[in-house]
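It is worth pausing here to work through a concrete case rather than discussing structure prediction in the abstract. The textbook approach is simple: state the sequence, then state the predicted structure, then interpret. We follow exactly that order.
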Amino acid sequence: MRRFFLAALAAFSLAPFLAAPAAQAAPVWSYVWIESLLSGHCVAVQDAVPGSQPVKVTPCADANYQLWDVLLVSSGKYTVRNTGSGLCLAAQGGALGSPIVQVACGAGSAQLWYLSGSGNHFSIRNVSTGRCMNAQSGPNGSPVLQANCPGVTNPNYALLF
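Step two, the predicted structure:
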């Protein structure tokens, strides 16, 4: 009986270490620029601090702060992770004109996005708010905000490889 108890205790104690690691989503698209078709600029992060600044558009450049991995999380839902900061895009609040920010990647629905379109042209709609990422055709450094979605027939972003 004692041998059985010790064997059971050892197996139970080691179970967390022997379990297979949780699967991580593999990028569907890696190291892509997200170019606004309205401004011709690319979505960029200001720094690597979660939630500190709204995501902005700046002239497209070969720099980590503008490169993104798009990861399929579940059927039709994606997270968008910056390759430089390792943080994910999220809708902050749900009101029209609320900013898009970067946050630590996790399971929140504010970090999940639908990509509607074809080829490399998409509308990028937040699962939680139902609003789309929108970068106005303003000057360099304009924030990316939440707006009403333009629809599948009028995508507002291109993923550039």
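Step three, interpretation. Residues 25-160 form a domain with the Trefoil (Acidic Fibroblast Growth Factor, subunit A) fold (CATH 2.80.10.50). The radius of gyration is 20 Å.
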